[in-house]
């Protein structure tokens, strides 16, 4: 039986169906950022640009990995979040930003990780973090988040170490 294992490794790729899936930038990043309609206390209608949003890039295409794109406008930040049991790799595709990770002790400040275009960050499962774009320039930052698992798990928290999800999240 042991002699059949090398043959099985050679045959399986020929038997199992596989296909390449391509997701185009135009399917992920809209040409015009999303806008939310608003109404003031006086009843005036208006709108504002969504400052932080996440878009699926490769989801439910592979059994063991998926990816999303997190887009942050200048002077904006995400909610505090974690990815549950999923390990994550963050790649900064454009712009720059700050990855804040949970403080080690209650009352201490979150740890800052400055990230620039082309940088990677490895985020272990259950690690609380927050993404910031502190740029005053008119440049969005785009973070590609690659996670273990076929679909993304994203738990939005009310603050550091709270452990309680915020539903619905107030920011992306």
UniProtKB/TrEMBL annotation:
Protein name: Cupin 2 conserved barrel domain-containing protein
InterPro entries: RmlC-like_jellyroll (IPR014710), RmlC_Cupin_sf (IPR011051)
SUPFAM superfamilies listed in its UniProt record: RmlC-like cupins
Domain of life: Eukaryota
């Amino acid at each position: 039986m042991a002699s059949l294992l090398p043959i099985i490794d050679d045959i399986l790729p020929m038997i199992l169906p596989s296909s390449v899936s391509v997701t185009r930038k135009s399917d992920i990043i809209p040409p015009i950022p999303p806008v939310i309609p608003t109404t003031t206390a006086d009843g005036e209608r208006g709108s504002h640009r969504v400052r932080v949003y996440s878009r699926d890039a490769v989801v439910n295409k592979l059994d063991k990995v998926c990816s999303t794109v997190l887009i942050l406008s200048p002077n904006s930040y995400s909610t505090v979040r974690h990815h549950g049991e999923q390990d994550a790799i963050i790649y900064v595709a454009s712009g720059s930003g700050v990855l804040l990770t949970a403080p080690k002790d209650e009352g201490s400040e979150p740890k800052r990780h400055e990230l620039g275009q082309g940088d990677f960050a490895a985020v272990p499962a259950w690690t609380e973090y927050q993404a910031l774009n502190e740029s005053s320039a008119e440049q969005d930052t785009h973070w590609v988040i690659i996670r273990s698992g076929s679909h993304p798990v994203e738990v939005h928290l009310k603050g550091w170490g709270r452990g309680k999800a915020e539903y619905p999240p107030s920011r992306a």
